[in-house]
Amino acid sequence: MRKILAAIAVLYSLASYSQQLKLTDGESNQPIQDALFYTPGGKITANTDARGFVNLTPFAGADTIYIRQLGYDLATTSFAELGKNEFKWKLKPGSITSEEVVIAANKWEQRRRELAGHAVTITKKDAELLNPQTAADLLALSGAVFVQKSQLGGGSPMLRGFATNRVLLVVDGVRMNTSIFRAGNVQNALRLDANNIEAAEIVFGPGSLIYGSDAIGGVMDYHSITPKFSNTGKVQVTGNALARFATANLEKTAHVDLNIGLKKVAFLSSFTFTDYDDLRMGSNGGPSFYLRNQYQRTHVSYDTAGNKTVLDTFYTNQNPLVQKGSGFSQWNFVQKVRVQANQYNQLVAAFHMSRSSNVPRYDRLNDFISPTEPRFAEWYYGPEQWMMAHFQYLHSKANAAFNNVKLNVAYQQNKESRNDRRFGNRWLRRQNETVHAVTANVDFNKEFNEKYALFYGVEAVFNRNISVADRLDVRMDTTQPFTQRYPNADWQSYAAYITGRFKFTEKVIMNVGVRYNHFLIGAEFDTTLFKLPYAEVKNNFGAATGSLGFTFLPSPTWKLFANFTTGFRAPNIDDIGKLFETAPGVLVVPNKDIKPEYALNSEAGIEKRFGKVATLYVGGYYNYLLNALTLAPFTMNGSDSLFFDGRNNSLRAIQNSSSAFVWGIQTSARFDFGRGFGAFVSYNYQTGKEKLVIDGVEQMYPMRHVAPMFGTVHVTYKHKWVTVDLYSDFSGSIKGDDLAIRTLESANLLFPTDEMGKLYSPAWYTLNLKTAFDIAKYLTLTVGVENITDQRYRTYSSGIAASGVNCVVGLRGRF
Q: Can you give the pTM of this predicted structure?
């Protein structure tokens, strides 16, 4: 009777004022921000603020309340139990038994344990400890993504032997890939702000069923920070701030985000500025080939009469470890508004914008014709600008057709340019691209019962590419027309998909689905300066994909899965219309006669949990490409060479080769030794070849984006206010015979030679230490040393050496 009266008293008191609960870390006692409280089916939800508080008034009387935050164990409780604890709750940091959910797999939350494939999640907590400089570096924290860099302002992720336009970048459910994503390395991931990411999910293998073209190697889905409502019914202002400094490139980063929450409306503003100086490489081991022994500078002066003089000067680098001409800067801004119209309808409007300074193309600046003559005086990407206006509407009132429906509409504008001038030459070539991208998705889910669920949707994508080019006389400040890199073109995609999840028993789950995509491409070539056999291209084709996967859960500690999926990549404007000098004496020309490439992927894996001590994952995959799109020797008007921009060039073009394959193994293990000690190990091996016809001979050659074996080993310790992570990243070597033909065309920029005089990509390792100290209730100091042994190395196929010993200090505050 007393318990009943106590419960009535609690409910009565809640009628007069809101009930606040404080959520803290079970070890450090620090407040936990952005944790999600929800009832079964998500009918009632709420998030903790920066101080760890959440308003539980809407949960009054609830028998089941879930508390979830990435990096922590899922907690299940009730309103009555929370009351007994005086509305204070400690969440246990993530353990071996943590139950994760994945959104990127089908655009709706799905338990990772039920997924018929492999996926990993990088949490904000991971990022705050390890302090990645960019959003590309953030992906590398997983230990399962290899990142290539041609310059400091670069970062091209490689997944399972695929990269660039064969992997898909997604932010908040919107695809970032545009119609000019190229086969060469891309750095578009850098346009995202790593300090504004709540989590990043990586789903390996073809994701074309859900996301369409390009998702062959995998999908990388970034989730940016979501505005939080007030927990008190009053205006609530919270935020985060970061100041960070790193010694290897004198990084200076400042970040602040501010959340203004009302009961049903919330605003989020985020801003980050980062400045990088020239990067210093390591001094130990590694070939001297990487050293920056000389560098070039351009000096502009005027005489008394106002006459301009432009002089290219060649210098000896006093410190060859410093990679002169690699620094750049960037800023990012995000503004979001979230509105809870009623219990069933929610709207989020967002505006993202990033802009860089000029980004020097370091590998090209380090290209020398002779020891005393660089090939280029200038080679840089002009300020790269990405802007996205995004509107999302979520309706969650169930009916016969769906439980939830999500509408995403986005407009993106991508601006980029390439600018180069040969040493001693007066002409600066300038090629500017602007892509206007509109995407619209409507996605539904329908759960009929605990056993059967459907996910389906439709999508439309429209890209408009505008390309202009000229040559600037740097001495006279006059311009001349020059050949565009791309034609002015439209690229359109329309699709529908449906996939189902069927639980035959609690132990056997099947996922099956199909998708159909239709594409329209129209391009108009300017043949004034460069004569082509055609003036326009119009393509119209379709692509169908499917997937079938099974998950077997024989016990709570075992998971076995197998799947067969198909993926595809439709030719884009970069494939059919690019005109560009990819290497000295090598010219890439348009080719209109290409079709989509298809991937046939099979995969199987095992996950095993050993009590509360360890989890192990082992998986293997085989991906076979039909009509694989690849760059290969080409003839135009019966000739395999062409005079262009003052020299004779051999011709290359994107073509459908007959086939290609990639296979590999992924393994990872996580350990919890108790008393705060833990460990994580990841190892990846992949190999692949493509069939090319060179000099009339057809044979298999290594594929360009198949990285050497790589992985990471972490040993961690956490106790109350301190966290320590000692880890090593490593990569194997690739012999010259195993380097891709496409890569060898730029070999003088990328690879050293061994003792036999053969090109190769050396193996490397780093030893690193990261620490975090909670020096006050809302203040955390992070101190780290990367590459402790100061190793000199480059990641595979990179044109710039990685940093040497690098001290990183960051101060994070919450208010």
A: 0.91
